[in-house]
Automatic annotation (TrEMBL):
InterPro entries reported in the protein's UniProt record: SAM-dependent_MTases_sf (IPR029063)
Species name: Paenibacillus typhae
Annotated signal sequence range: none
Protein name: Spermidine synthase
Entry superkingdom: Bacteria
UniProt keyword terms in alphabetical order: Polyamine biosynthesis
UniProt record, GO biological process: polyamine biosynthetic process
Length: 241
């Protein structure tokens, strides 16, 4: 399969090696940027990457009977597809991404809204959700209006009292000013905040960092976190709109 391009330079391609793992994979990638999703063609139901596996564990372990989830950032639909029996509402700003998730990655659900995640979340009923998930990236990183105090206040109002926000971010686990700022800003709105990261070779390595904010203590089983470990993020400034 040849890479397919369009105005946004989204590529779909197949490869026999992905991050050192041999096999047959189909990949969705924004040009020159991080991979947005991968499908194991030999085990299509398998969740390939560690970060969605860790997010799935945190969701199941903290609220086993959850039903309602608002997800910002669709990718190939990994998490919403995994929890097909739950009620997901997915916000995705790029229509092409959704089209490819259906045509090349087997996404079948009819629950994706096209548009800005924050604006779409504002229109939802207060107190409705068990989880709000954020997995939204541009080449410049996570859009600022999705990590601001105003946004986190909005998420708290759309979750019920036992609900949680769970975010996949990219950063360094030490001395990362932006990660410290996101952590500090999130802590203004949620009494319990935990951060998890994959161990890296050096402190300067950028990797996936998961942040979870909740009205109650965040629980996890270390061996179920797909290699993620708890990390302590520094303090930072509060991010305003």
């Amino acid at each position: 399969m040849h890479p397919q391009h369009d105005d946004n330079e989204i590529q779909v391609y197949e490869t026999t090696e992905l991050y050192g793992e041999k096999g047959r994979f189909r990949v969705l990638q924004f040009s020159g940027d991080a991979i947005q999703g991968a499908l194991d063609l030999e085990q299509p139901k398998r969740v390939v990457f560690e970060y969605p596996r860790a997010m799935i564990h945190l969701m199941e372990y903290n609220r086993p009977l959850f039903q309602d989830v608002f997800l910002i950032g669709h990718g190939i639909g990994t998490i919403a597809g995994y929890f097909a029996e739950k009620r997901f509402k997915v916000a995705e700003v790029n229509e092409e991404v959704v089209r490819y998730s259906r045509s090349h990655f087997g996404y079948t659900q009819d629950n994706v809204l096209i548009g800005d995640g924050r604006s779409l979340l504002e229109a939802e009923r207060d107190g409705q959700y068990d989880y709000i998930l954020l997995d939204a990236f541009t080449a410049a990183g996570t859009p600022q209006h999705l990590i601001s105090s105003g946004f986190f206040g909005l998420t708290r109002s759309k979750l019920h009292s036992g609900g949680s926000i769970l975010m996949n971010l990219m950063g360094k686990s030490e001395n990362d000013r932006l990660m410290g700022a996101v952590h500090t800003t999130l802590s203004e709105h949620y009494p319990y905040v935990e951060a998890f990261a994959l161990p890296a070779e050096g402190a300067a390595d950028v990797r996936n960092i998961l942040l979870m904010g909740s009205g109650r203590p965040v629980r996890y089983q270390a061996r179920q976190l797909a290699g993620f470990v708890p990390v302590t993020l520094g303090q930072g400034h509060v991010i305003r709109d």
